[in-house]
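Please check our next protein.
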Amino acid sequence: MDGDFERAHAAFEECERLNQEMGITVHSAARDREADVALLEGDPPAAERLLRESVEQLEAMGDRLHLPVIFGLLARAVLAQGRAEEAGRLTETAERIAARDDVSPQVYWRATRARVLAQRGDAAEAERLAREATALAADTDWLVGRAEAAEALAVALAAAGREDDAYQESTAALLLYEQKGARVLADAARSALVEQRRRGIAPLAADKRR
């Protein structure tokens, strides 16, 4: 999250070496952390490859614990490549297999589907799902998940023409990323705010300090 991708890849290489020594397990098969890094690097095709390999291995093992997160991330990676319909179907898979009290996949699939629906023009349903995602993440210390949900809500509100409200949610996401120290995500969120200002949205007090 700090942008030190060289060290991140070196750490994953060491993990892979240890996994090979221990043999294949559900933990080695679930490569969601590596996929996260690929998404942070701006390489969604690489993230998709990792996640599809994970799906294949985990399904062969009969795993149901890690798969909901994998499918949630896969939907995001696919959407990042412009394949909204496929991403929507992947969120349906994540929804179907995720435990109701498993917060991460529940937030992931709602946030991604909200973005898909916003693209389709269904702003009301997009907002409903995004607000569910924000509510699920709100009571946790998962700052990145809370920020991702806020960003999805911003997209839904913008699709409804509520640009001022969207700006507020984008600002909230930025502050959460900064609180986490997630520099790469904060930089992207800040760029999104700049784009909103370019469209004529007035800066909020929380943003004026910059």
